[in-house]
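By way of example, we now present a protein record of this kind:
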Amino acid sequence: MDFGTIRRVWLPLALSAWILIYILRNGPRTHETARWIGLTIVLIGLAGVFVSRYTLGRSFSIRAKASALVTSGIYSRIRNPIYVSGVLFTIGIAVMLWKFWLLALLVPMIPMQVWRARREARVLEEKFGEEYREYRRRTWF
């Protein structure tokens, strides 16, 4: 395993795990069932982010670029699993902390992710043409 994989995948995973443990230990305890439901949603979102980043490998970047068309793993079903997983993570944190005002973060987050996904789609379509259009037809978001 190279340093790039550690930096891209495992270091953020360790930081996220630490934050979750901190929230579980120090967060509100009035709604115990909601904490566990929220934690489950958070873990699903977190797993989606890390599986996605791992699957992308060196193709992951912050800015839209087209180095490779990744269509395997989670990308065989969802074109933008990191964005979908981020929404799940945010919902899970709001439920876990019983602070539903945090859902207001989704108001700017979702349009921003749709905008980024469209921009990425344009870049990928320019580079991969019909191969990308076929991929879009058989996947969600």
User: Anything to note?
Assistant: The mean pLDDT is 87. Helices lie at 3-26, 32-56, 81-97, 106-128, 130-138. Residues 108 and 114 are 10 Å apart (CA to CA).
